[in-house]
Every structure is written in structure tokens, then in C-alpha cells.
Amino acid sequence: MVKSHRISAKKTFDITLFVIVWTFTIWLLYPILTTSSLESWNVKTFFYRTVIGIAIMLVFFGKTIFDLFFPLDSSKSESLLQTIFLTIYGLLVVTGILYVAGRLVIFYFASSNAEFFSM
After folding, report:
1. C-alpha angle 69/71/72, rounded to 5°?
2. What is the predicted pLDDT for the residue at 56?
3. pLDDT tens digits, one per residue of 53-77
4. DSSP letters spanning the chain
5. Residues 6 or more apart from 101 whose CB is under 8 A from it?
6. Nearest-CA neighbor of 54 among 9, 98, 119?
7. Does the predicted TM-score (pTM) go above 0.85?
8. Are 53 and 25 in contact (CB under 8 A)?
9. Is 104 helix (H, G, I), strand (E, B) or coil?
10. 86-118 per-residue burial string, b: 16 or more CB within 10 A, e: under 16
11. What is the CB neighbour count within 10 angstroms for residue 57?
């Protein structure tokens, strides 16, 4: 008997959605990651984009922690390899959040513009 290793349509949709949301998040965070300084005319735009990107990363981190501690199907145990990869992924997401937040704070203190958070 030959088993088919086809990926179901739901799994394909989940993977595609995951990649699309991560691509959108990287697009949001790209300016703050690649620039060495911010000019006063684009500080507000980068700030809002960065906050939205960090919020999406926080949602990803929360989902990862929830999946790690409360697996969906508790009747079967998760493999050790899956748990290790999920832990590493969670640590990478936290590292990314801290790095981006740190860059945002550095830009805030480096800017002489007092209107950084003004509306």
C-alpha cells in the first residue's frame, strides 16, 4: 500500500497565509532595519509602520508560546524535534522584537526632533 504525501488544501492555505503575513511584516519593518538615520519628514511614517510590525510579531510570538505550551491535539504528544524548532522560532521572534524596538529607541534618542511622538 502506497501512502500519498500530498499536502491538504487547508495546510497549503495556512502555509501561504503564514508566508504572506511574514512578508508583510518584513515590508513594514524594512525601513527601520536598513536605514542608518531618520530625517524629520519620515519619522512618523516609520514609527507607525514599525509599531504595526512589532504588533504583528507580538501576535506571532503569542501564538508560538500558546502552541508550545498548549498543543492543539493533547491526545498525541508532540515530537521532540517539533518542540525544539518551535522553541527556536519563538526565541528568534523575541530577538527580532527586541532588536526592532531597540532600533526605534535609538532613533528616538538620536533625533533632535521633539515632535517624534506628536500627532
Report:
1. 145
2. 92
3. 899 999 999 888 888 888 776 666 6
4. -PPP-PPPHHHHHHHHHHHHHHHHHHHHHHHHHH-S---TTTHHHHHHHHHHHHHHHHHHHHHHHHHHHS-S-TTSPPPHHHHHHHHHHHHHHHHHHHHHHHHHHHHHHH---TTSS--
5. 54
6. 98
7. no
8. yes
9. helix
10. beeebeebeebbeebeebbeebeeeeeeeebee
11. 20
Go through the chain and tell me how many residues it has.
119
Q: Which amino acid is at 15?
A: I
Beta-sheet strands, E only, within the chain: none
pLDDT given at position 112: 55
Query: Residue 1 corresponds to which cell in the numbers above?
Result: 500500500
Q: In one letter, which amino acid is 104?
A: L
Q: Grid coordinates standing for 25?
A: 511584516
- Nearest CA-CA partner of 60 in 89, 100, 37: 89
The CA dihedral of 14, 20, 23, 28, to the nearest 10 degrees, is -120
Q: Which grid coordinates belong to 100?
A: 526592532
65 in helix, strand or coil?
A: helix
Say which DSSP state 117 is in. Answer: S
